[in-house]
């Protein structure tokens, strides 16, 4: 009901303003009966220049209405009203500032700067007043928002999790051996030398425990407009486990580039390199993992709050002596429903080509999620994720190539610890259900995750 009332209020304000403008323009364009047709056309084409001057109170009322429309989340309507206002009253410093701020909120500094410059020139031609002094401060602040700057940020995060398995696969240790599989055929050829009894025991033992992720990193961004905006990120991570011979440590560096193309499109490019060392058990050797990734995404902004992205990515992975390539195609949409509610959805299609005996696969990853700010301090969210992987050929235990289908439900609630939102604690509840004929990939797992982050 509140959403309906807000929508009706926005529509009423918008059409009321349009009606006021239409009446004002009509009054300015109305020609006497004795006026010729040609003179009437000229008068109509220059109607805006003949609008009677509005009083300061009228401009303040009109500016307040624009702010109310923007506060209700109708940024497009507020931008249209602000544009119309500067056309009717081009010498209004206040309306120029409001229009520039709306452009900045829409990440269109290229359009905002001319209005800030024009408003500054208007004040230079006027006598010094208290309002002018206050407007100069606002203009200087908005200009700084559009200026090219270098931002350096350091952050630290920690995540603790209790799990039934410290391995990637949470399923059982007993793997059924299919009749006609590669392993079964070998055993039949060996006769009494091979007796598998219809199953194989991976003997992974008790592998449950507690994991703590430590993550530190830096981010350096050159914020500029009309050119590529680069961001360099560095990450160092370490996974500590409650049991020995289980762990992970590594580092990652990533370069992101963004560039606006017109008012509706933006290119996002990324290049990253990662190196890690992992161990999963006392009897297993350490695994060296290296990955390089390149990606390009084109985003189309249908409105100021809704955008659709399509992208491709290529990844090369080396794990010990095994090499693989992964190709990704992505489609995603994100929207800001209100000032407090955001929603997003994405689907990724993958194709992984592996060498040295590893299995190639095709995959699909579908994700939907919403986030909500309950108060300025408390936030919450929920998401669902469905993945499906189809392998190109069977494992030695299986007669046919298997599939892995996983569904993950997650919900979280968190709180900002500081007013500037540089520190937060987030509590996640995650349920994962994996279905597969290969028993290590067949399981159901519930996890509680505590996440802490601080930005320096």
For this entry, give a set of tags:
MSHA biogenesis protein MshN; Porin; signal; 456 residues; alpha+beta; 8 helices; two-stranded antiparallel ribbon; Serine Threonine Protein Phosphatase 5, Tetratricopeptide repeat; 16 strands
Task: Write a structural description.
This protein has a 14-stranded antiparallel barrel with strand order 1-4-5-6-7-8-9-10-11-12-13-14-15-16. Strands 2-3 form a two-stranded antiparallel sheet. It folds into two domains: 2-146, Serine Threonine Protein Phosphatase 5, Tetratricopeptide repeat (Alpha Horseshoe), CATH 1.25.40; 149-455, monomeric porin ompg (Porin, Beta Barrel), CATH 2.40.160. 27% of the residues lie in helices and 45% in strands. The protein is elongated and about 105 Å long. With 456 residues, it is α+β, with helices and mostly antiparallel strands. Residues 1-30 form the signal peptide. This is MSHA biogenesis protein MshN. Keywords: Signal.
Q: What is the total number of structural domains?
A: 2
Strand content: over 45%
Number of helices: 8
CATH-derived architecture of the largest domain: Beta Barrel
Assigned CATH class of the largest domain = Mainly Beta
Structural class: alpha+beta
Poorly predicted parts: 1-5, 14-51
Q: Measure the end-to-end span.
A: 42 Å
CATH superfamily of the largest domain: monomeric porin ompg
- In round numbers, the mean pLDDT is 79
